[in-house]
Write a structure and sequence with these properties.
By secondary structure, the chain is mainly α. It has 15 helices and two strands. The protein is globular, with a radius of gyration of 22 Å. About 2% of the residues have low confidence.
Length: 395
């Protein structure tokens, strides 16, 4: 009996010791990723203030520069100048894998399915067509240019759905390399910024008499949520039509929801057609339920929580029967902001710290052309569909 108790005690002590060692190994890398995230957010805010000061954006606008993008950039600079000592490697890998998935799950709280209903029966097909065209054209051009299917998929999803967030969500599914993630994020950021600055003028030139069409165009043609908001605010400041901001925001949030469907679809395409995995042989297609990553299920569940909370709040004034509007908004805003800002930031710090400039040698200029063609194709399809069907949509 004593021997059994002693064995149990030794086993518990062994587990505690193993846990302490694991924490000790992970902590330095996790801390440096967190510090780099905070620095990236601070630097992005400073750049945003400079842009506003130079009158490129209206006063009070949020920074159109993603803190995540700056965090990746800082990580790349540190990796390729100072280097990454071995003591940080385990924690960086942990952040890159687990902080990423946790952050994406919490993003579900940002998206309510009720927003999609505001666009009506015609708005959703228009958004789906824009997303589908972005994916199809980008993957086709990627194949024609003989580029990595993984990189093309990242650029396609970033262009068609929700910019940097989509790239981060898809990257673990397609087993993307660190340099491919960095290149895709840079691509989306550059072309999204260009669109943000020029599309408001273009929208007014063609849709000056219809703020719904203008908002739909900005919401479907520009990549990142912050960039869509910035473009809509520019439009409002230049032409004094506030409704464009509301329409563009609803359109973009609805578009973001389609990440739920696109990730399983991309998984299917990747496992069915990709020959870059394993021993360069086509893999057997997994069962359908294995094509849906667990973090996507978590994302969807929290999106339903947000939807139910919004519904009960609008009907009775209390979300879930006990949270007032202010408390409910504070709850989902705090948790979704923590996920999108810090957890995803830590993951992207891990990407930057894992990216060696030597890795970019094989990529060349072609991925830049893919990003350019993807951005133009989404813009053209969006303009065409909004011109034809925009009058049918009422918000």
């Amino acid at each position: 009996m004593k021997v059994l108790k002693n064995n149990k005690a030794k086993l518990k002590e062994s587990k505690r010791s193993g846990f302490r060692v694991a924490v000790k190994n992970l902590l330095p890398g996790v801390i440096i990723c967190l510090l780099m995230t905070v620095m990236g957010i601070y630097a992005a805010n400073l750049i945003g203030k400079l842009i506003v000061y130079l009158n490129f954006l209206p006063k009070g606008s949020a920074s159109p520069i993603s803190g995540i993008f700056v965090t990746i950039l800082l990580g790349i600079i540190v990796r390729n100048t100072i280097g990454l000592p071995n003591v940080f490697i385990d924690g960086v890998k942990f952040s890159l894998k687990y902080a990423l998935r946790a952050g994406i799950i919490l993003l579900g709280l940002r998206l309510s399915l009720m927003e999609a209903l505001k666009l009506g029966a015609w708005g959703l097909p228009l958004i789906i067509a824009c997303i589908a065209s972005g994916l199809a054209v980008t993957l086709y051009i990627t194949k024609k240019m003989n580029q990595s299917n993984r990189l093309g998929t990242l650029i396609a999803c970033g262009t068609g759905i929700c910019g940097v967030t989509a790239i981060m969500a898809v990257s673990p599914v397609v087993k993307a390399k660190d340099n491919e993630i960095s290149y895709a994020v840079a691509n989306i950021t550059i072309f999204g910024l260009v669109s943000m600055l020029f599309y408001p003028t273009l929208a007014n030139f063609f849709f000056s008499d219809n703020p719904i069409k203008a908002g739909l165009f900005l919401g479907t043609a520009i990549h990142d949520t912050a960039q869509v908001t910035g473009a809509a605010l520019i439009y409002n400041q230049m032409y004094d039509i506030e409704k464009v901001v509301d329409v563009a925001t609803i359109t973009k949030l609805t578009r973001n929801l389609f990440i739920i469907a696109v990730i399983p679809f991309v998984s299917y395409l990747f496992f069915k057609n990709n020959k870059e995995v394993g021993n360069h042989d086509k893999q057997e297609l997994p069962k359908w339920y294995k094509l849906v990553p667990l973090f996507v299920i978590g994302f969807l569940l929290l999106s339903f929580v947000r939807t139910i909370g919004d519904m009960t709040s609008s009907q009775s004034g209390l979300a879930f029967g006990f949270l007032n509007q202010l408390s409910w908004e504070g709850f989902y805003t705090s948790f979704s902001s923590f996920g999108s800002t810090y957890l995803l930031g830590m993951a992207m710090a891990g990407v930057g710290l894992s990216t060696d400039f030597k890795m970019f040698k094989g990529l060349g200029i072609k991925p830049f052309y893919i990003g350019l063609i993807a951005a133009l194709s989404v813009g053209i399809v969006s303009f065409t569909l909004v011109s034809i069907f925009g009058d049918l949509i009422k918000i």
